[in-house]
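Notes, Module 5: Reading structure tokens.

Key idea: the token line is not a picture. It is a compressed description, and you learn to read it the same way you learned to read a sequence, by spotting repeated patterns. We will look at two proteins. The first is printed below with its tokens.
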Amino acid sequence: MGKSVKAKKTTLLQQLINQSFLFRGLEEAWLSQYLDADNLKLETLFSNRPVYTAFLPDEFLDVLYVILNEGVIVVRSTPLDRIIAITYPGGCFGMRSLPFSYGLASRAFPCLVESYKTTHVLKIPLSALEKIYNDNESFRQRYCFLFELQQKFEYHLLNCSSYPPQAVATLLRALIYQERELGSQPDAENIYTFDLSVDVIARACQLNQRTVEQVLKGLQNVGLIASESTGDLIRVLDAEGLKEVYSATRDKVNWWPLR
């Protein structure tokens, strides 16, 4: 029994190395000096439940959340309840609420961090994170890059037009950039796949759900995306073609009926 449990926990360490942008490629023997395999536990965050509230005065986290396997984590800003961050497997969250590195300077108004879909995470203790950060330059550069990615994601949303086709395309372009930089996508056929519900798109783009559905139908009709009739998966078939919609003005998207 003991050997079986130990093997399972060692596998979690390997998954961390193989699947996480932050830990990718690190040597298992080296990493095990900082992370005790016997204490690594895969935890489940259930859907539509808050994980924590970020940016509360004088309140910080003591762990970094790394997403493995499946899941979607969103950050909702206040008071408009706008989604300003979306994190998929391979990414991590909680950096801006750690009293460490750039987290010390990442202050904002309170934001709800929520597990939008059932999500599997590993919690990395702050003490171990600091030691790895100090001892590994590659890790340190990646950790800093995560803050840059978040700023660029929010920058995309700041440029989110009130014109629905451009607004939805802006969110998709932000996700494409994020996942490409993290090395998570595209697949071998140059297709990006996102677990992205109409509700999340609507909250990120400040549109109503009916309008989002119409935009997605239009994008699908012109061959830029494919979506399931049931479920939330959206496949971006032509990331380059999506750029034209992203930069479009009201008279350039001929498939959108409303001017």
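Here is the second protein, with the sequence above and the tokens below, as before.
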Amino acid sequence: MADLFTTALRVHQAVYEKSGGLVGHRLLFGNPTLLLRTVGRKTGKPRTSALTYARDGQSYIVTASNGGSSRPPGWLANVKAAPECEIQVGRRRIPVTARPTYPDDPDYARRWALVDKVNKGRYSQYQTMTDRPIALVVLDPRG
């Protein structure tokens, strides 16, 4: 079943990218989805990840859940190494600065509630599956 879910996520991202954002913003489960474009910290190659997001004012919030895995997703290390990146929301590309936050951040609990609601409680479920604190990444538009 996990393989089927992973395949569905890859197909969703491919459709989102190939359509230029015309299709994909709300395709999978109806969750709002953005494309996070980063640079691989080791390879220097462009990387793209389709991620569910919530809004907090002008900021976009994504969750480094990796499905509750004990390891965070690779894109988290990429944004830590190079926080200047880009998101695509629908057809709009937005340069952003990424800022990982953890439970010790005073706004973490409020932001967690925002993203968890958008993802219908799945992030809270994922947190029970791992001992690592799941990072929230604040994506602030530049300029």
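Summary for the second protein:
- The longest strand covers residues 46-56.
- DSSP finds four helices and six strands in the chain.
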